[in-house]
Write the structure tokens for this entry.
Amino acid sequence: MRLLFTALACLISVSLSAQGLSIGDTYQGGIVFYLDGNGGGLIAAPSDQSTGAEWGCFGTLISGADGTAIGTGNQNTIDIEAGCTTVGTAADICANYTDGTYSDWFLPSKDELNQMWLNLHLQGLGGFANYGYLSSTENGINLAWVQGFGDGVQSSYIKYNANGNVRAIRSFVSTPGCTDPNATNYDPDASEDDGSCEYLDYDGNGDGCVDINDMLDLLLEYGQCEPETQLDFDGNGDGCVNGEDVLNILVEYGSCE
Ligand SMILES: [Ca+2]
Ligand SMILES: [Ca+2]
Ligand SMILES: [Ca+2]
């Protein structure tokens, strides 16, 4: 009968369709604010790195740092660091930021910044102020692009102004694995579910515990008396699926992982 139990355990393990990451999820040092559709995306630091930064190097045209698109902020930041030696610029702050685990942060490009405004700030996420956030996109010799987080308008920022807000971001690539925290093989680093999640036997509701709630569900669905039939879950083989059988299951399989 134990064999029967084991064989049937999968019947009542809920097949949760575990998902990958969503916008607003906490992941790898910050908050996910952009998904590229291939399991990768962008993460914003959980709070501002500065509320009074200059863009830097007024009067100097930086070689590069002109990317506006999603995916260009990292190279822009590298370009600014290479072409402007001023310490404490918005890009410099991001390049030197670490949350203790990740140190590959950068200043978002013009379009990346807009995604952060759209997907986080407008949804009430991310703890942004209604002030101007600096992008890593240069706009000529004296200007760079800034976005007002109050009205969402992107405009020019004079490079020597020292009142820009700075929010560092980082990117991540697809990391397949089990993304359901209730699974026994949950991988907190996985960004995309690969269908590998495993659950406890008899954890019918998939909450990571085999307990009385699962047994009540089991009784509701399978509880009956049919002395002439070999019933699923009739562990003691007395022709009934009842309290005695689920108690035996709990004794043998009850656990929380
Ligand atoms: Ca440039
Ligand atoms: Ca359960
Ligand atoms: Ca029984």
